[in-house]
Amino acid sequence: MKKVRVALISFAHGHQMGWAGVFAARPDVEIVAAWDDDEQRGRERAQRLGVEFVSDLDALLSRSDVDAVTICSENSKHAAHAVKAAEAGKHIMMQKPMATSVLEAQRIVEAVNRAGVTYMQAYNLRFDPLHLKVKELVDSGAIGRVAVVRRRHSHHFGLTVEDTSNVLGWMTQRQLSGGGALMDEGAHALLWFLWMFGRPKSVSAHIGTVMPHLEVDDHALLTMEFEDNVVGTLQTSWIEMAAGPTIEIYGDKGVIVATGTDIASTRFPVSEGPYLQVFRQETGAWEFPQVELVLARTAPPANAFIDTLVKGEPSPVPAETAKAAVEIAMAAYESAKTGRAVFL
Prior knowledge:
Oligomer: single chain
Shape: globular
Strand order of the largest sheet: 14-13-12-11-7-10-9-8-15
CATH class of the largest domain: Alpha Beta
Number of domains: 2
Radius of gyration: 20 Å
Largest sheet: 9 strands, mixed
Structural class: alpha/beta
CATH superfamily of the largest domain: Dihydrodipicolinate Reductase, domain 2
């Protein structure tokens, strides 16, 4: 069996260790080495994983025994690291968001296209059974013509100084993160909207900060207009400690309601399920499709990345899609600043 040989670039985001755990459990993956610009952190994590630490990124990327890299550096460093990796001919899985500006996202797209390497945005919602079932229901016309979509994706780690420091860390520093809740939690939901309904035509947003210890946004409310007059709203934040539905999709023949797909709805759930409910106008009754609720959210994208490389298939979340999510986020920040809708 030919193994995919992976190098880990930065442990700034905790998902790197989660991905490494997935790789270690697969017989078709070998973690070859790791790098981090925080050498102490990098050496400690590499030792914990039992892999070689390399102190020079260029030296790591020049190695012939590295096929792919996973990048978990601070958001502001994503473009520099991804471009270097692409130029070295390495396949890339990137922690979200892709970048902190549209210009940096475009740099990554161009580098990936020039090199002909595979790029995959780490996007867990795209691969779990509940979301796949929702996608199937919408695409099959089970609820008819979709008119209104509401999506909520949030957690509570911005509520206290302790959680902000221990969990969010550098993500609350605008220079490193590029923004707050919208760039962090909202990035998942923006990729979901792109997957489900394509690119929006316009974005209107309110983005703000409630908690006095934060210098970046802790909540965002977006309204997006899609093709076929579909209107989508996104509520995302760091200040929701408990919550119910995460998805509501209203069609002219039925409704889809789901929950349990963000931290706010799983840490302190309103109920224990069912997690997916479908109302059909023709029967006048609710149905409850049985779907697995995936709580180990770092596993799906890590497995999907390796499967894509092993099978030689196109990326399920390519660089162009990742860039589109950044464009929507930047349009939302512009809308919130100007008080006007931004057309894409």
